[in-house]
Design a protein that fits this description.
Blueprint: H1 2-19, H2 22-40, H3 46-77
Length: 79
């Protein structure tokens, strides 16, 4: 337990020291620049990707069922 407290305290001290240095401003600026860069790209969120993947999977299943029904209909229409 003492190691955990030591590391937590050390981390807090490093964070506090960095908060009062130009490194914090640099981090803020870097995050803003990266955010702007990524917003210009045509990207989707993971959530949107997962939703579209599920829709595509359901569509493929439906298409497979429809193709099977069509094949059955074609067989029944042949003399």
């Amino acid at each position: 337990m003492e190691n955990t407290n030591f590391f937590d305290e050390f981390s807090a001290r490093v964070s506090a020291a960095l908060a009062n240095t130009p490194a914090k401003d640099l981090e803020k600026n870097l995050r803003a620049n990266l955010s702007t860069f990524f917003s210009k790209l045509d990207l989707v969120t993971r959530e949107e990707f997962d939703i579209q993947s599920k829709i595509l999977e359901r569509t493929r299943e439906k298409l497979t069922r429809i193709e099977a029904q069509l094949a059955d209909l074609e067989k029944s229409l042949k003399p």
